[in-house]
Amino acid sequence: MASPSSSAGRPVYLKLRDQIAAAILDGTFAEGAMLPSVRAYAAAEAANPLTVAKAYQQFQTEGLVQVQRGVGMFVAPGAAEALRTREREAFLHHEWPEIRVRMRRLHLDAAALLGEPERT
């Protein structure tokens, strides 16, 4: 998932993909649960159905959803853990280095930001 500051220039289908991924990670769409239809999700997000279909296709390509023809798309077993692993790697290799540099530049302390007492 992209950080909020970097999402401005991202294509809509990737933003929708991030929303769906977050819902899978949060358990809103549990493993084995049926995803909303393309039309239903498009209506709920005020998005073009073709854009939603493209986001769904990404999950299908990644093996995170299973399609049952005539029924719908379902969150695949192990999808949440696979997503968590991918998102963690993306965060640690792409987002965290930028965040760490910005924190140093702004003289921000990670412990203080996390609400932990400062150690001396």
Percent range for helical residues? 55-70%
The unreliable regions are 1-5
CATH superfamily: Winged helix-like DNA-binding domain superfamily/Winged helix DNA-binding domain
The number of E-state strands comes to 2
Kindly provide the name of the CATH class: Mainly Alpha
The helix-and-strand class reads mainly alpha
What gyration radius follows from the Cα positions, in whole Å? 17 Å
Biggest pleated-sheet summary: 2 strands, antiparallel
- Per CATH, the architecture is Orthogonal Bundle
Strand content: 5-15%
Question: How many domains is the backbone divided into?
Answer: 1
Q: SSE layout and pairings?
A:
Blueprint: H1 12-26, H2 38-45, H3 49-61, E1 65-68, E2 72-75, H4 79-105, H5 110-113
Antiparallel strand pairs: 1-2
Helix pairs in contact: 1-3, 2-3
Task: Describe, in plain words, how this protein is organized in 3D.
By secondary structure, this protein is mostly helical. The chain is built from five helices and two strands. It has helices at 12-26, 38-45, 49-61, 79-105, 110-113, and strands at residues 65-68, 72-75. The chain is elongated and about 60 Å long. The model is unreliable at 1-5 (pLDDT under 50).
Spell out the key features of this protein.
single chain, 120 residues, two-stranded antiparallel sheet, disordered N terminus
Concise structural overview:
The protein has helices spanning 12-26, 38-45, 49-61, 79-105, 110-113, and strands at 65-68, 72-75. With 120 residues, the protein is mainly alpha-helical. Helix 1 crosses helix 3 (49-61) and helix 2 (38-45) packs across helix 3 (49-61).
